[in-house]
Write a structure and sequence with these properties.
single chain, about 220 residues, mainly alpha
Length: about 220
């Protein structure tokens, strides 16, 4: 669409299709970040469940079974957090695999810092006899505080995201309107070499502005 809009050429449109390759990686990164956020949100509830189970005297395997059941009810049986907890519980029932090692593997694969931290704390409790209930409570409190800060940051930059989208879409929108309303007004941009150079520069500036805007509003805590 950009190729047709800025060059009125099928060949240019086909050539610009190569942008799909880097954009696919960007989209994959966005999906991965979304899944990590969902995992962190679900893991917060898991910590509360484990903390309550530990307070009632349950051991870690039983607490994880309860957390898996709770995750299935709240997030769905096909959610990432539910599938991971179910896998850990199944491995423990079948072969008594080390729960601390499975939690550590879960944290490494998910790239969620909170899960890695809890796995390390649980392993330490196993080795040193620490208070698992207190570890779960403090971990849940820290995760909740971090998520509150992230939510506040998202609220502050939500309007800026809309501004970036509108400002980026405005030049192509104006160009499309001129093409439809009065093509002769912009025909020089399509029919001359200098005009094509100008259009190329404009397209590069629009893409650069979009990337710059996304980088500015991409705040990570």
């Amino acid at each position: 669409m950009l190729g047709l809009l800025f060059y009125r050429s099928v060949f240019a449109a086909a050539a610009l299709c190569v942008l799909a390759l880097p954009l696919e990686q960007v989209y994959r990164s966005m999906l991965a970040e979304k899944r990590r956020s969902a995992l962190a949100e679900g893991f917060k509830d898991v910590l509360y469940t484990i903390s309550g189970a530990a307070a009632s005297g349950r051991q870690m395997p039983s607490a994880l079974e309860l957390a898996a059941s709770s995750a299935a009810n709240s997030a769905g049986e096909h959610s990432d957090i539910c599938r991971e907890l179910t896998h850990i519980c199944t491995c423990y029932r079948q072969s008594h695999a080390d729960i601390g090692e499975m939690l550590r593997s879960f944290g490494e694969r998910s790239h969620v810092a909170e899960i890695r931290q809890f796995a390390a704390a649980y392993t330490t409790c196993q080795l040193c006899g620490g208070d698992l209930e207190e570890v779960c409570r403090k971990s849940a409190s820290l995760i909740l505080d971090k998520m509150s800060l992230e939510e506040e940051a998202r609220s502050l930059i939500s309007q800026k995201k809309i501004d970036v989208i509108l400002l980026t879409a405005m030049p192509p929108g104006v160009l499309l309107f001129l093409n439809l309303a009065n093509y002769s007004y912009v025909s020089v941009l399509y029919e001359t070499g200098i005009g094509r150079v100008v259009m190329t520069l404009c397209l590069l500036l629009i893409i650069s502005a979009l990337l710059w805007g996304v980088k500015i509003i991409n705040i990570k805590l």
